[in-house]
């Protein structure tokens, strides 16, 4: 199975790199991820519950980061075992580059092999499940990025309007109100 795509991220390349190397942030972003545990420098154990077509299983896996060129790229090597459901193993090349309008472009290319019951489901279902998981990952990843790095533009737009115009309008309102009350109740000067 081969899968590649690009995703625009609303953060700087350094922030994207930091997020991609933040275990807790990744755990919250990976669909079905129950745990990620560092086992050494650039090595991790991962536990993920996944469904591929009718096959559902918990996959225990090993993940290693290779060819690390901080903060622009690395290759992930993964090997996951799902018991009777089968296995998945392969590599994913990830690279980050700045976007002219601001933000970061994340490019990835995955090459994976599956076996066992997963392989029996058919390559089309496996490809669809992989695309769905990638879509859910990036949707979750964007949300946690926006929580961690709120956009400065939105903060400016959300600022309340200045109080000065309201203070200028207030005397006119009260003067009209007072005049209406005098007319209504027949009050004099």
TrEMBL record:
Domain of life: Bacteria
Pfam family membership, one: COXG
Listed InterPro entries: CO_DH_gsu, START-like_dom_sf
Protein name in UniProt: Carbon monoxide dehydrogenase
Naturally occurring in which organism (per UniProt): Quisquiliibacterium transsilvanicum
């Amino acid at each position: 199975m081969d899968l590649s795509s690009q995703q625009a991220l609303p953060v700087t390349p350094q922030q994207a790199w930091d997020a991609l190397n933040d275990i807790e942030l990744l755990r919250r972003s990976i669909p079905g991820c129950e745990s990620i545990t560092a086992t050494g420098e650039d090595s991790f154990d991962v536990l993920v519950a996944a469904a591929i077509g009718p096959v559902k299983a918990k996959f225990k896996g090993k993940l290693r980061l290779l060819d690390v060129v901080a903060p622009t790229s690395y290759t992930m090597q993964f090997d996951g075992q799902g018991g009777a459901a089968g296995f998945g193993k392969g590599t994913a090349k990830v690279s980050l580059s700045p976007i002219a309008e601001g933000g970061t472009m994340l490019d990835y290319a995955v090459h994976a092999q599956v076996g066992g019951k997963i392989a029996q489901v058919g390559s089309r279902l496996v490809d669809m499940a992989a695309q769905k998981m990638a879509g859910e990952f990036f949707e979750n990843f964007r949300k946690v990025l926006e929580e961690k790095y709120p956009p400065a533009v939105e903060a400016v737009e959300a600022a309340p309007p200045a109080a000065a115009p309201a203070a200028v309008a207030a005397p006119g309102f009260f003067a009209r109100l007072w005049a209406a009350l005098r007319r209504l109740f027949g009050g004099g000067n």
